[in-house]
Structures are given as structure tokens and as C-alpha cells.
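Structure in, sequence out. Go:
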């Protein structure tokens, strides 16, 4: 498995953990809720569904899928209209960033709105708290941790 495929598998695996939004962590595809297997390399991040939400973090959790050797960071964010599952990235990457998101934080998150199993979620590209921004993906949706070797920093 390539590093990029591993990173994408982590996103899928961590995607929906302790919330009532439960994704199967074995590379299932987004959107149709059928549980079908996704073609190798299918991505959850869709640049056509980018939106920005604001709200309060009600939960921060890490989760590891059955086939993943890494944990991923997952948030629950309560907005004015809903409580939304938000997926950041692998814990080794997120924990190494200068901004750390905590329960109770007021945040603005830009990411790709996806539907899986009939439920809405957001795959984050940026999380802003106060004047600090955690950048997770570039404008094309490519993860900033891609190619970093699964936990080893690319200095």
C-alpha cells in the first residue's frame, strides 16, 4: 500500500467514530450509503462540495480502523443548525501542529461536505480558532501529510 493510499485509508477509517455517524473503515466510498467497496484510491474529499461552518467543538477523539496502523483525529462540532462530524487527519500529523483543537473551542472549519450512509459530515481542510489556523489540505484537497512517511516528519 502506498503512503498516499495509507493516508486516504486513515481518513476513511477515522472518519466516523464515536458519533452516531458510523463509517466502515475499510475503504468504502462516500455518498450512496450502500456499503459498496470503493475503487482503489477513491477520495472522500470533493472540491465541489467545499463549505465553511462555525461552531463549538463538543468532542475531540482519536480512532483507529481495523486495518489502520495509525489513529486519526475526529471532532464533533455543534453549529447553529446541527452537530456535525468533522475529520481532521492522522493523529501523528495533527498532534505535531502548532494549534491544538480542544473541546469547548469556538472554531471555523472549511472542508468538503460529504454524505455517507445518509448522514452529513465534513472532511476538514482548515480549522481556525481565534487568529490561528490549522491547515490540513491544499486547495485541491491533497492532505499536507501525504508523502511524510506515516509519522516521520518531512523536514
Amino acid at each position: 500500500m502506498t503512503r498516499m493510499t495509507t493516508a486516504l485509508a486513515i481518513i476513511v477509517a477515522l472518519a466516523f467514530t464515536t458519533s452516531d455517524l458510523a463509517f466502515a473503515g475499510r475503504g468504502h466510498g462516500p455518498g450512496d450509503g450502500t456499503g459498496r467497496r470503493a475503487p482503489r484510491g477513491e477520495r472522500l474529499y470533493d472540491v465541489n462540495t467545499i463549505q465553511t461552518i462555525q461552531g463549538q467543538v463538543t468532542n475531540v477523539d482519536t480512532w483507529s480502523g481495523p486495518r489502520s496502523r495509525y489513529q486519526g483525529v475526529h471532532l464533533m462540532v455543534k453549529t447553529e443548525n446541527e452537530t456535525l462530524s468533522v475529520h481532521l487527519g492522522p493523529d501523528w500529523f495533527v498532534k505535531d501542529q502548532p494549534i491544538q483543537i480542544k473541546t469547548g473551542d469556538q472554531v471555523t472549519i472549511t472542508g468538503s461536505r460529504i454524505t455517507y450512509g445518509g448522514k452529513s459530515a465534513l472532511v476538514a481542510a482548515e480549522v481556525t480558532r481565534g487568529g490561528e489556523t490549522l491547515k490540513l489540505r491544499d486547495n485541491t484537497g491533497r492532505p499536507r501529510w501525504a508523502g511524510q512517511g506515516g509519522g516521520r516528519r518531512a523536514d
